Structure formats: C-alpha cells, structure tokens
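User: Small ask, check this?
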Amino acid sequence: MVRRREITDEPAVDDFDFPRVLNAIADPIRLAIVTQLAAAPGDLSCGSFILPVHPSTATHHFTALRQAGVIHQFYAGTSRMNVLRRDDLNAVFPGFLDSVISAAAKASTPAR
C-alpha cells in the first residue's frame, strides 16, 4: 500500500476566489495542465505532463493552480500526484471548468 500525504495550502470550497481561478487558468502552461488532467483517466504525477518548460518552472505553475483551488495535489510515495477539483469548482462556479476545457479543445483543433 502506497502511503498518501496531503499538501494543505489549497483553499476550501468556501474560500474560492473567481479572479484568482481565472488568473490561474489564463496562463497557457497552466491551461495545458488543466486540459491534460481533464483528459486523463485518473490522477497524474507531475512528471507525466507534456510541458514546454523546465521542471522547476512547472512546479511554479502547479503551485499556482493548487493555491487557486483548481487542482488538488498529494504525495503517493515519492510522486506528487495531481487531480482536478472538478466537483468543487462546479459547485461554486457551475459549468465554468467544463466551458474552459471545451474552449481550449476547440482552440487547439486545426481549422479545416
């Protein structure tokens, strides 16, 4: 059994701040993290993302998403795992995250 250790600097649902969530998702690297998480069948380790930045820069982006409440992170053994807080975001901002993910998918699809 893998020991799970929580990272505790993310906001509670009651403390979500819409401008902070918008700011976190507006960055192209962070949006890529969100869309990759949305497409994943389960939790993803930080090292499994395809990002055009150095790992230390990626850590900054994961932290911004976590502290805005967009993702939840935890350690499973030595891996830092990531999961979207989809249910929490939908409870506070209904349909917002799904709209962002849908728009990002359309924007990345080449026009015919």
Notes: The chain has a mean pLDDT of 92.
